[in-house]
Structure formats: structure tokens, C-alpha cells
Amino acid sequence: MASKTFSAVPPVACRFGEPKSAMKTTAIKINDVPASFRIFKQKPAATVPPLADGVRVVTAAEYEQAAACLAEAFGEDDVARYFIDVPDRDHWTEAEKWDLHVEIMEYVTYAHILKGLVTTVGDFEAVALCGMWRLNYRLSPEGKRRFFDEFLPLLHDTMHTTLGDREHEAWYLVYIGTKRSGRGKGHARKLIEHVTKLADGEGRACYLESSNVANPPIYRRFGFEACRTIQLQRGGRNIPLDIMVREPVAQEKKGGK
């Protein structure tokens, strides 16, 4: 399942730069430019809403496992590949493109661990990211144009047009992905219901962009309704994204009153 507020999980310290011995440093290479990011010891989290049905919060130390799940789930997704399958990367092998795909998912996942909510079910068989996607990783010139000049402005404007004043209050389901080995076990349902229950308790809407035509009927089962369809157009063919919103369901008071 693929898709595209914010949680009670506080940010942990994260900086980009040269490593120090007291920190765990993950080295990466994107667009032929070496880089690294430091992972500090995670601070104690604030009170997190109780989890159920095997759903748990992913820690900073687990970002690679969570990212690997999403990389597999979105390996053939048109939107996920939109910034990689570009004319100025035609000379790259599929292995090089796959490595970049994984690295992008690692950036996205770690960013949401810091300033959002990342949950998982099973042995990282399914992962969900909720929060804001504000990254500045390195892509090819065409990849950057697609991401920064087309994709982000389109998503921002569409969300604002759809939600209006509620834009900064809604729960934003950025990614929900399930490995092939984890499908058919109800993992995605558990992750979605965890977020929708939180949203209902707070009286907030849920918002997502679905990049797979098979998914809107699934999301409708959870109360999401399609609002509009937008198109990514720089790649020579239109790539659609279905915009869906779920309005909060009123919670019954104890005693049925």
C-alpha cells in the first residue's frame, strides 16, 4: 500500500557535518557528493499515546530498517521514481538508482523520526510516516527541478487549497508501505487505524496523497474521501496523485452520553 499533524514525539538532536568520536555517523553518497549525518543519543520521548495491535514507534536507531521497508514497498512507485528516472541520470545503472532510492527513503524516514511520527508493525513488515516532509537532499539538476520546482509547490498548494485554515492542524499520512512478506496480515490497517484514532480523539482531519490507483478504495474503508486528482507532468507523461481527506469521527462519551 502506498500513500502520501503532527505528533507528540519530540525532535532529537541531528546535525549534518563531519563526524566526532562521541557520535554514531552514517556516511552516504548522493549525486556523487559524499555526505554524512550524525546520530546523537536519543532523548527520552514525551508521553506517546498508548499503542495497540502490535503497533510501535520507530526509534532513531532503527531508521535504516524502517527505510528498507519503505524502499521495497515503493520500489516501483511512479512518484517515488519520479526524481530518479530522469534524463540526466540515464547513464546510471539500475543498482545505482536503487541505492539512491534507498538513501532518499533513509533521509525521509529519519526526518520524520525527528519531527513527526514513524510507526511499524511486525519485524518492520509495514511502516507509516506521519508529519511534515521538509528535506534538502541532493538530486540531479532535473531531479531537483522536479522535486523543488514542481512536486513540493504542487503538494503545498493543493493541501492549502483542500484544507484551508486546517492545513497545519491535520494529520498528514506521508507514507504507508508494506513489504511483500508482510502483506495480507492486516499491518497497514493497524497503522492507519492508529493514526485515525489519534485524529478522532483530537478532532482533526487526516490528509494523504495516494500514488497508486488501487489504493483509494482501500482508504475509503477507513473514512477517506477523494477530493481531487493532481498531476506531475515534467516526465513526459502525467503521473496522477489522488488527494483524500478523512474528517474526524465524533467520539462517544463514557456512559453513552
TrEMBL record:
GO molecular function, one term: acyltransferase activity, transferring groups other than amino-acyl groups
Superkingdom classification of source: Eukaryota
Gene3D superfamilies according to UniProt: 3.40.630.30
SUPFAM superfamilies: Acyl-CoA N-acyltransferases (Nat)
Pfam family name, one: Acetyltransf_7
Annotated ranges, domain N-acetyltransferase: 170-225
Protein name: N-acetyltransferase domain-containing protein
